[in-house]
Amino acid sequence: MKNIVILISGGGSNMAAIVRAARDGRWRERYGAQVAAVISNRPDAAGLALARAEGIPTVVVDHREQPSREAFDARLAQEIERHQPWLVAMAGFMRILGDGFVARFAGRMVNVHPSLLPAFPGLDTHRRAIEAGCRFAGATVHRVTADLDHGPILAQAVVPILPADTPETLAERVLSQEHLIYPRAIAGLLATEG
Ligand code: GAR
């Protein structure tokens, strides 16, 4: 079975989109794939309840309970490995992971980022895009490498930035595209990689 482990920190709407796509697209029958677990670094992440409602096992590895970044990475890696992941999908996971962690899951980890990478890596992407006078923004699905928000690009979607946009209205427009391209990119990997 190709196990997909999804990492979240918050609302989990991308996670929910992947779970929906897996169900509606019959990933189990078609690709022998399943969402095996959802792991959050925050116990209060709203996405945890969504995952539980779908019958998906959830785990919390609270970064505040770990003595160091290294200890957090090690604990998280341990929880992920328990599910023998074919793919680790970061979906609004807001912790920076160390090089050792990234190396351990090299080639098996993907992320969605709310900008047209390589523009605007990091935080606060929507405000920065508006302030830079960009006419377009978007979302990127990419492989995770040691370079933050810079791995090989798997999919992108473009949206216009409208004159009246605030970071919030733009975020909403971008997020709705993330929900389309992220599951599609994962299905693409499932279809093409053994
Ligand atoms: C999404 O917009 C995602 O791209 C972003 O956080 C949001 C999470 O929403 N991720 C990052 O900024 C990571 N650098 P969700 O929890 O509803 O999926």
Largest sheet: 7 strands, mixed
β-strand amount: 15-25%
Poorly predicted regions = none
Main sheet: strand order: 3-2-1-4-5-6-7
Indicate the CATH topology.
Rossmann fold
Net shape: globular
**Number of structural units classed as domains:** 1
Q: What is the CA-based Rg, rounded?
A: 16 Å
Number of E-state strands: 7
What's the CATH C level? Alpha Beta
Could you report the average pLDDT, rounded to the nearest whole number? 96
Helix content: 25-40%
Looking at CATH, the homologous superfamily is Formyl transferase, N-terminal domain
CATH architecture: 3-Layer(aba) Sandwich
Q: N-to-C SSE series?
A: EHHEHEHEHEHEEH
The SS-based structural class is alpha/beta
Q: N- to C-terminal separation?
A: 11 Å
List the total number of helices. 7
Bound ligands, named by name, code or SMILES = glycinamide ribonucleotide
GO molecular function, one term: phosphoribosylglycinamide formyltransferase activity
EC number: 2.1.2.2
Function: Catalyzes the transfer of a formyl group from 10-formyltetrahydrofolate to 5-phospho-ribosyl-glycinamide (GAR), producing 5-phospho-ribosyl-N-formylglycinamide (FGAR) and tetrahydrofolate.
Organism: Ramlibacter aquaticus
